[in-house]
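Dear Dr. V.,

Thank you for agreeing to look over these. As mentioned in my earlier message, I'm a first-year student in the group and I'm still getting used to reading structure tokens, so any feedback on how I've presented them would be very welcome. I ran two proteins. I've put each sequence directly above its structure. The first is here:
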Amino acid sequence: MPRATLDRIEDDVAVLIVEGRQLTRPLRELPEGVREGDVLDLDTLVVDREATKALRAQVREARQRAKRGKKPPPSGDFDL
């Protein structure tokens, strides 16, 4: 089953990532309540909840690995 990840929503257009390529679909074609990061079955356009959960766990782990050993950002007011 071909899958896509919802990368972002731009106005009424959904930007999907399929095998590293971007594909756009009208947002109205996707299930109501779909959100960025959801994994969809391209044949049925149904959210694959298990695949979405697994992808979010992978992203969370990658963020944690990236943060290890880094200082937290300074708190308080500062100018850019």
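The second protein is here, in the same arrangement:
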Amino acid sequence: MRKHFGTDGIRGRANATITPELALRVGQAAGLAFRRGDHRHRVVIGKDTRLSGYMIENALVAGFTSVGMDTLLLGPMPTPAVAMLTRSMRADLGVMISASHNPFEDNGIKLFGPDGYKLSDDVERDIEALIDGDLSRRLAPASGLGRAKRVEGVHARYIEFAKRTLPRLLDFEGLRVVLDCANGAAYRVAPEALWELGAEVIAIGVEPNGFNINREVGSTAPEALIAKVRELRADIGIALDGDADRVIIVDEKGRLVDGDQLMAAIAKSWRDDGRLTQPGIVATVMSNLGLERYLDGLGLTLERTAVGDRYVLERMREGGYNLGGEQSGHVILSDFATTGDGLVAALQLLTVVKRSERPVSEVCHCFEPLPQVLKNVRYRSGRPLESEAVTTIIEAARERLGASGRLVVRASGTEPVIRVMGEGDDRELVVEVVDEIADAVTRSAA
């Protein structure tokens, strides 16, 4: 168990869990961990649009400069843009200040190595040890302090990067796109990129005020997007989350397309074009069994990992896969990016739609999902999953579902929640076993 890091960096309530003191220590610890060699070290820092981003950004700057690292401030930028710019600008470290799809009251700190990849568990443990240790004797002397400056032109660099992932001479002329940026990090770059590619863009969720990120907009609240797509008879709706590393699609009929269907559509297109580096893709244990069956029909495999796009990416790198992701909309296209990129994934799907000359509803609804039920049980303290009563009910539920279903029960890595997911051909049975487990967890956590 780690004290600070979860499945996606450090996350919690701003000014309660994520305090200036913690951010300062993270800057110092991460800076020391990545001081390698005698060159002038630098770190790039991006953020989403939360009010607390100012506080955390300044504390991180103080931490990094105090150990001799120069800091380059990007301002509001998508998480994948920070990862890309970390490599492009030859930085020793990249930082994204964001709590992704969480409400504005939360915030977080995500770290990227000089290669643009999220840090491994081992490196995060090393940083944790430094955070909780005595750093007073390792601070830079007065003459060795770092400098800080804001960097101009980074939006244009990311937009050009995203556009270069498309085939030459392809444009989206004639496509009407409703784009929901969740009042988050992509509110400037995503609409501009799509417009430059020729699409007619109707943007919502592009008026951040520090408080409205993910509020009734974005990939976790797609109702506004669905309504706008139907109202304008748009060809497609695209919803990003607060830091734009995930995407959800709405077809022209107003139906949701999740990450599983998105991966299926891209996998088929890339298989047909000979672009898959392996005969399969990587997804998590939460992906629908229907995806696995669909891929099998294409002669492709589905490798499953623990929940978290970082674990998907680790398996992709180990096995040489270039496509993977999560049902929630994290789609990793490793030919282009080192992390999930909602905009780039959307552009790849639009490419399939444009080249096939078929509507999104036909391109993206590749399979009929098996009935899947997910319940989130919030708890205050303790470890409910270690209760004997809970483990007994879980094992009984697995036996009842048998080979025709799946059951995943796990603690969230970003909040005090137990997630209970069941799926199978018999929906009534799935609902019954999920309810039983959720009730058991609730009693244990009371």
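From my reading of the second output: The first strand starts at residue 10 and ends at 13. The two ends are 23 Å apart (CA to CA). Does that match how you would interpret it?

Kind regards,
E.
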